[in-house]
Amino acid sequence: MSRDEAARYVGVSTTTFDRMVQAGWMPGPKRVFSRLIWDRLQLDAAFTDLPEATGESTR
Question: The whole model's pTM is what?
Fold first, then answer.
């Protein structure tokens, strides 16, 4: 999926998604010719590995 789609998939803005990739919290893309594409299964695994929110309001 594209960068925009990957960010939307994990529920963040593209700017936040870029920061998460740079920090190693989300996987980097694969290059297919000139396109950068994110693997959904890798995104799922990285999202699962993020720490749970504790003591924070969900509202």
Answer: 0.85
